[in-house]
Structure formats: structure tokens, C-alpha cells
Amino acid sequence: MNRKLAVVAALGFLAASAITPAIAQQGVTDTEILLGDILPLTGPPALLGVAHNLGVKVAVAEANAAGGINGRKLRLISEDDGYVPSRTVQGVRKLITSDKVFALTSLSGTAQGQAALPVVRQAGIPTMATISLFEELYKPVSKNVFAIGGDHESATAGLVAKVADKFPGKKWAIISQDDDYGELVRQGFELVQKEKKLSVVSSQIYKKGQADFSSEILKVKQSGAEVLMAGGVLGENVAMAKELERNGFKIPMAVTYVSRVPASVKLMGAAGENVYTVDFVTLEESPRGKAFMEKVKQHLTPEEMGRVNRYTFTGYAGARTLFEAMKRCGKSLTWDCTNAELAKTQNFDTGVMSPISFSATQHLAAPALFLMRSDPASVSYKPVE
């Protein structure tokens, strides 16, 4: 190699060496840490996405009011994916490669997260998932992806088991959605069906976005079912509850925690008096829930307060857990350090659910589920003793 080529090679090596740490610490300056949020901020699913986003904003505001993380203030960039998987992938790529955020505080819904997960894994960027969980998030373990909550299969299984214990020996019906979410609901239901030998007299699958459930509920009634597992998201579960009421068919109806929001209870009205769900997020009216809501009021506008629900709690919990790991890295904040510190998290109390724990081989923190029942009078859910 001649002298000129040797110099060029050396300069190239130095340039590469200089670039590597910059990439590992993207989104970090001496005074600021840039974060990214990808979730539905428009359309019906915005009921979940906006609430989650507000929880992250509260965590950011709280941290900044306390001086930031090791002297650096936090700034959040939020991307709206409209609950469309292709837009989720585009938004995640923008946040990572164009905005160059340091970490992601959400990964949107089930199908959306599944579409974007390969991009996130390849990048290695610290990522929290708390809106909608699925097994691929944590099996196999990805060094940079951490989930809080219960995936829909496990949550459905927990729900059906608790409702079956409350109403033993009853005949069951299930109506579920024709997508990945619906498949997870069916899998969770079938686990308990086999374990508890449930008598299932009606099983139906509806098309995503369906609004009229008169035919499905009529079949449920004709089958002699005594409990319904309603595997919708929001509007679909409301429609099923209303249809049961219209038919004068007062049977317990189980819904996953995606429907545990005040707007859903309000829309169901009196039709929701027999609706049950499970959740791991503390109830708003509990002592811990009230304490959190007081904190929220300090950082949100009255208009934003009207959009707060359980997803505000989960958004806050995920962000707080992420920030704690970042804090333990000190001034030398990197992806590798943050991912490693997240994996060491043990019994971290966010104040809105049971303590969060991860390990090198377990990147799912699954707080305990408890049963609750819709209360139309207070437009909320109440714990079932």
C-alpha cells in the first residue's frame, strides 16, 4: 500500500471510529435527550393512543421539573400512525433515522408493533411497549425491547378464568375479531376452555370494523349461552352490549382490558351493568389512582384531562421505568447502558401498578390481574371482591 492510500485508509478508520459512538448515543446532547412516541393519535383508536401519549408527557414534565435526567432535559417527538401498520413502520424509521431519537416510549398496537418490531430490533434502540402486547415482543428476548403488562392471550385467559370462577357451570359463547388481536383472544379463551372444561355453545368471528352485531347476538341467544366473551376492541364491544340489552338478554359479558376506559362505559350506559374485565392498572378511584390523578392535573390542560384513561397510567409507567434506567447510566448515556440497566430493573414502583421487574432472560413485566365490573352510575369500573 502506498503512502497516499495508507493515509486515506487511516482517515477512513478514524472517521468510522468517530461515527460509532455518535450513533450509539444519538438523541443525546450536553443539555437534552430526545425521545420518540409512535401511536394512533387520530381515528377511533386515538382513545387509547392519545391517553398513552399524555402519560408519557406527564412523566417527561415531571422529570424535567426535577432537573431532567442527570442534568439533561427531555424532549418528546410524537408520530401518529393512525393504527395502520405501514404507517407505524414509516414513523418508527423516521424517529430513528431522521429525528434520531434516543429511545422509543411506545410501539403502538398489536399488528402495528409486529410490523415495526424488526426495524426496532435491528436498530438496537431502547424501546418500551405498554399499549398492546404480543408474545414476539419478549420471546425470544430482544436486548432492547421491554414490555409492561399482559399480552392479549394471557389477559384473556386470566379474564375468562376469573369470570368462569364467578359464574361456574355456565354455557359460554365467544365473538372475536378476524385479525391478530382476535386470534390472541381466541387462543387465551381456548386455554381456559380446555383447562376448566367450559361448555362453549357458540363461537363466531366477525370482520374488523363491523358495527352491526344483531345477527351474532341472536345466534348467541338461540344457542342458550349464559356468558359471552366479547372479543372486540372498543366500539364493537359497546355494540354487542347494546344488542344484548335490545334483546332483553341479560347475561355476563367479558371484555379485555382494552375496553377499560370511561368512554366505553359511558357509551354502553345501562347495557354495561353486566360487563366484566380484568386489569393490572390501579383504578382511578383507588388511593394510588387518586394520587396519580392529582399529579396529572399539575402537568395537563383541562382539555387533556378529559382524555385521560388507563392508557395514561401505562404510558407513564413505561416512561418512568425507562427514565430510571437512563438515570442509572449517569452522564455517559448510551443505548447499551440503558438496555442493560432496564434488564436489571427490580421492583421499581411507578405508583400506578404493582412494581416492575425485568431480567436478562425476561423482558416482560406482567403485573397481577384483578377482576372488575362496569358501573354505569359512576362511568367507571369497580373491583369485584
Top-tier CATH class of the largest domain = Alpha Beta
Number of strands: 13
Helix and strand run: HEHEHEHEEHEHEHEHEHEHHHHEEE
pLDDT under 50 segments (min length 5)? 1-24
Topology-level CATH name of the largest domain: Rossmann fold
Quote the average pLDDT. 91
Q: Give a short account of the largest sheet.
A: 7 strands, mixed
Widest β-sheet, arrangement of strands: 7-6-8-9-10-12-13
CATH architecture of the largest domain: 3-Layer(aba) Sandwich
Number of helices: 13
Report, as a whole number of angstroms, the end-to-end distance: 79 Å
Number of domains: 2
Strand content: 15-25%
What is the CATH superfamily of the largest domain? Response regulator
Q: Radius of gyration from the CA trace?
A: 23 Å
Proportion of residues in helical segments = 40-55%
Helix/sheet category: alpha/beta
